[in-house]
Amino acid sequence: MTQLLTTRIGGLVLPNPVICGSGEPVMTESGVRAALAAGAAGVIAKSVNENPAGGRQLDRADYAFVGESLFNRSGLSQRDTRDWFASIAAIDRDAAKDGRFVAASIVYGSADGAVEIGGMARAAGLRVFELNVGAPHASEASPGAIVQETDPARLRTLVEDVRAAVGDMQLWVKLTGLSANLPALAVAAKAGGADSVCMMGRFMAVIPDLETLGPMLGTSAAYGGGWALPIVCRFLALSRRAVGAGFPLMGTNGVRGGGDVLRMGLAGASAVEMLSLVMHEGFQGLTRTIGEVEAFVAERGLTFAELVGRAADALTTYGEQPEMPGRWRDFVPAETLTER
Ligand SMILES: Cc1cc2nc3c(=O)[nH]c(=O)nc-3n(C[C@H](O)[C@H](O)[C@H](O)COP(=O)(O)O)c2cc1C
Predict the structure, then answer these.
(1) In angstroms, what is the span from residue 76 Cα to ligand 1's centroid?
(2) d(CA 340, CA 338)
(3) Cis peptide leading into 200, omega within 30 of 0?
């Protein structure tokens, strides 16, 4: 890849802004290697959890595509954490040769667990640790298996503790989509010593099935799709204001191609983590996406880095808009306007 797509997340300079997010496609070494071979700047390897209940949940996982939106309940890696981290650290060492990375990730169940697993990632020689404090499945998982942190003060303390455990690794915090408090959470993560935050996790949903008249998959489950992207972009833009343009943000949830990477970039994301597309289209979806971003910036004589935050910084308020009396009339059925 050329310099057109170069981006920086904390101490890492990446060849492009497309990261393969954590999930089942990167639950094996071959999956991680395939994501890198497809051109991803990095991979967040499938998350572990310190509580064996998190791994057992994988055996009850199920998935359904609703158009390009994915509705599923997931679980966590069942691999021994030390073995898994040793394996992905070996791939990370190779990836580093051309400026890319493989990150360890935890969907945490307790602060002690996050600290312990963070220490294991550091001992394995990994360079990036992603702490997911917002997995949507928390409300449905076995008690204590998955925690969702929505309180800024508690998040700051957690991040400080994990920062102490991971030393000078890159520490990224992935935030929930089930809170309107994201800018405050981003500020808290930064204050606690995070190098970047990624937002936002998927939403929990119930999809009544018109065939069976019951709930699809039988449970509430996580739901995400292209429709989520503008919501994520709003929180990216608001968070950019809260943390300042110098602190790198990452976007996730709803990226389905190069245009979406650019939209998240314009909203303030220096990189995106995408996953459902890989489940829908295969790893070549990453290659397609990177090619589309490159074609866009090349055509306009821009670089990706120059686009980051542009739309966010141009956001205005309702009160700043010019008055357009009667504009509403263009958006109602003719009957509404019939004079009597
Ligand atoms: C099947 C599945 C499994 C996932 N597992 C994890 C996980 O273990 N850890 C994590 O941090 N995120 C996990 N995610 C979230 C994704 O990494 C990603 O942030 C999310 O799906 C939104 O992006 P997308 O619209 O590109 O899929 C999972 C998502 C899906 C669909």
Answers:
(1) 11
(2) 6
(3) yes
What is the Å distance from ligand 1's center to 298 Cα?
Answer: 30
Q: Domain map of the chain by residue range?
A: 3-337
pTM over 0.90, yes/no: yes
User: Nearest residue CA, atom 6 of ligand 1?
Assistant: 23
CATH architecture of 3-337: Alpha-Beta Barrel (3.20)
The distance from CA 258 to its chain's CA centroid, rounded to whole angstroms, is 16
- CA 298, 299, 304 angle in degrees (round to 5)? 40
Return the closest-CA partner of residue 40 out of 12, 67, 63, 21. 21
Residue with CA nearest ligand 1 atom 5: 23
d(CA 293, CA 177): 25
Q: Which atom of ligand 1 is nearest to the CA of 256?
A: 26
Looking from the CA of 273 toward its CB, the CA atoms found within 13 Å total 31
At 263-300, the pLDDT tens digits run 999 999 999 999 999 999 999 999 999 999 999 999 99
| Rg, Å, the chain Cα set | 20
**Residue 133 and residue 328: Cα distance in Å, rounded?**
42
